[in-house]
Structures are given as C-alpha cells and as structure tokens.
Amino acid sequence: MNWSLWILEYGYVDRFPASNLFAAQPNEGHRRMPYCFGLARSAGRTVLIDTGFADPAVHDRLTAKYGATRWAAPADVLARIGVAATEVDTILLTQNHFDHAGCVDAFPAAHVWIQQREISLYRAAAARPARFEFLTRSCQADLPDRLESRPSTLADGPAVVAPGLSLRPAHDTHTAGSQLVVVENEADGTWIFAGDNVYAYENLDGLHGDGVLAPIAMTTGSATAWLDLADDMLAAVGRETRRILPFHEAAVWETFPSVAFEDGLHVAEVSRAGGHRSVVAAG
User: Fold this and answer.
1) Strand locations in 66-164 (E)
2) pLDDT, tens digit, for every residue of 131-172?
3) φ and ψ of 245, to 5 deg
4) CA 2 to CA 21: how far, in whole Å?
5) Ranges of residues in the chain whose predicted pLDDT is under 50
6) How far apart are CA 67 and CA 31, in angstroms?
7) What is the dihedral of CA 255, 258, 262, 263, to 10 degrees?
8) Whole-angstrom Cα distance, residue 168 to residue 145?
C-alpha cells in the first residue's frame, strides 16, 4: 500500500517567539511560524491529518500579538491543489486544539478519529474550577459535542485506519491524549505526522544541531514522556528527522519540493508514492 502525502499551509504569523517552541530556552529570537495540516491520498481514500481553523477574531488576535499574518480557510487551501472538501472521507486529529481541530464541519463527509483520552480528559479539565483554565486554553471547546452528531471513532490506544495508515498514542505529552499518524509506504518507507509534538526540526536535532533533544515548550504533559516519545519516533524512521512531519516549521518548504501561492502560503509535496500528480509542477 502507498500513500501520497502533502503538508498544506493555511496561515502564518510573522514574529513568533522561538522560546515558545523550546522548553527552558529564552532569548532565541523570533521566526515566521506557519500553521499547517496534512493530506494523505491513496487510490481510493482522501484523508486529512488535522483540519486547521478559520476564525477572523482569532486571526485579529494573533496579528496584534505576533505581527503580520496571512490566513486562508483550510478547505480553500485544499481546493488549490484540486481536492474538494467533499472528497475528504477521513479526518485524523492529532489533538483537540483550535488550530488543529477548528474546521471539522468544513468536511461533512469525513469520519473523524481522535483519541478517547483526549476527549474524556478535556471534559474533565473543563469541569474544573476556573483557576485550572490553562488545561483548556487552546482547546476547541465544541469538538466533543460535534463528534456526537457525526461519524467518529474515539480510539482507545493504537488503531489501524487503513492499510499503511495507523494511529499511535502520544499521551501526556503536548496534550493528555495526543496521537501520531504513522504512514508506512511500500515505496518509500515510514513517515510520521507529529502534530504539535514537534514544532521545529530543532526539537529533534538540537538547537545547535548537536543531537540533544529540545523538548517542546507548550505542553500539559511531561518533558520526560516527550523525550521518550521523540526518541521512539526517531528510531521508527531510522533517525531520519525529515520523516517526522511538523505543522509549524517553515523549513518544511526547503526540505521538500514546494510551491508558494500568490498570498505567500505554501504546499509541500512530501511523497508521491501513491502515484498522484505533482501539485508543485502544476503550481
């Protein structure tokens, strides 16, 4: 089985503090940070990894905080490479944060998968007193209710979604019930969509390329759990960092064949193992 893979940028902020990406690493300056989601296609399937968000109020808030920004609705970004929102049959959510799970309803035909632990512990956190608001600050509050009214699966640990496409728990790391999406292609090997358990390649390669793992800064879980997860991810891909796919890393556009659209948003072509046409060449 083979899947073609893309990373699609639906927005960016121009001056994001790098210290928010790496734990205990102040004074690392600023960088342009993209907001992305993933796409996997086989001969008969169209799968999104996360759905992004489209909310003008949040766009304005992020612009005021981080300088110049650019945004497009994820469904419109998908259409730029010739994929209609109605073609999406499956959504795999790495987490319940607004920038990863905010546009589920834009893909009405899709069956949604998320870890049961992510939903149950979100509900438990939301029921706690207001002083615990940090636990739910970035969450998509209406997602649990939306999932009750559409086809969905709350996975209890590892799960096979389709041949060559599976879910792996990453509990108590970035969020209580985070998960990875693992793609195993016969043609070009293993790829891992890491969600927010990798913000930048430096999380895995070290801030100075020294190989010292640099834990993510924004987490409700444990740095120790993250370190073990990161090491396991690297082992699963032969310690080839580029095979672990982040959604907030601008270096993706140089790592893989990419095209920039007129508004400055990008799409990267990670793999065409599934035999699909090159959107980069078309762009």
Assistant:
1) 69-71, 90-92, 111-115, 152-155, 159-162
2) 999 999 999 999 999 999 999 999 999 999 999 999 999 999
3) -100, 115
4) 32
5) none
6) 11
7) -40
8) 24
